[in-house]
Amino acid sequence: MFSLSGMTAAITGGTSGIGEAVAARFAAAGARVVIIGRRDGRDIARRSGAIAAIRADCASEDQVARALNEARDVLGQELDVLVNNAGVENTGPMIADATATELQRVFDINTFAVFYGLKYGPLVLKDGGSIINTASVAALMGIPGYSQYSASKAAVISLTRSAAVELAPRGIRVNAVCPGSVFTPMLPPDHPEVPLAMQMCPLGRVGTTDEVVGAYHFLAAAESRYITGQALAVDGGIVAGVSLGTLEAVATKAAAG
Ligand code: NAD
Least buried of 17, 98, 148, 192, by fewest C-beta within 10 Å? Predict the structure, then answer.
């Protein structure tokens, strides 16, 4: 396992799902970890091996700036790794029926929170540190009814690339992870998207948090020190192309007339 021994990390949205699993993985690899989330995350921090939980609404610029300063103070040193992971889902209306109010709500957390992390994170990060943003495969493809979520995550990939070139002189790397469909509280097994996700995925199944944390671990570790500005899909092959399951479903429908 790539060692994170002696390293420090802060993870937004660390109180559940992918963020909680990343916190647990980083702690198991030797890092001292702080989670940042909207709720009281003290029990979750204890469970995942994080040393503290800081409360913040990451859609608020002031609260992100404050939480990152607090993370540095709690850790007693500057950060090696910042994971901007807090996010919300949004599915439903096609663009014709979507509202600007909802688009703003989705951008406030999925995009602006990452922007605040990229603006204030470097003030508390060591030179040579690593920032990892959670985007999504939805950023890489058009899916009917996903326009707001997809746009908010595509902006995350763009911000990742811009920050990578701006922070390169300090040796700070900035990358994005693009999960496919992963079982978390955002995507429980009874979510209506699950059958579609299974069919679209060439590997034929929804992923688990255990199957995505390795990408974060690698991007945090020294082994990835020449990688920056990348968006890494961890998606069972969804963006690679059309799954056999989809072709078979189309063929079955065609045969049925
Ligand atoms: P989740 O709902 O378990 O986790 C989301 C986390 O973000 C929670 O801890 C939540 O409290 C936090 N959060 C939301 N709004 C916040 C705010 N305003 N301030 C602070 N924290 C806030 O879901 P997850 O699946 O673990 O999602 C983690 C990230 O992964 C999100 O950015 C999500 O968009 C992305 N993602 C998830 C999937 C999936 O299939 N689960 C796929 C692609 C991308």
Answer: 192
| Residues of the domain holding 39 | 8-189+206-238
User: Which of 116, 120, 146, 149 is the catalytic position?
Assistant: 149
CA 82–ligand 1 middle distance (angstroms): 15
In a domain, 250, yes or no: no
Which residue's entry shows tokens 């922070």?
Answer: 167
Q: Which atom from ligand 1 is nearest to the alpha carbon of 87? A: 32
Find the angle CA(17)-CA(22)-CA(26) to the nearest 5 degrees: 155
pTM of the complete model: 0.98
User: Is residue 194 assigned to a domain?
Assistant: no
149 in active site: yes
CA of 1 to the centre of ligand 1 (A): 26
Q: What CATH number does the domain containing 149 carry?
A: 3.40.50.720
Ligand 1 atom nearest the C-alpha of 135 is 44
Q: How many structural domains are present in the chain?
A: 1
- Ligand 1 centroid to 185 CA: how many Å? 8
Q: What would the pLDDT profile of 161-220 be if each residue is shown by its tens digit? A: 999 999 999 999 999 999 999 999 999 999 988 998 999 999 999 999 999 999 999 999
Classify residue 3: in a domain, yes or no.
no
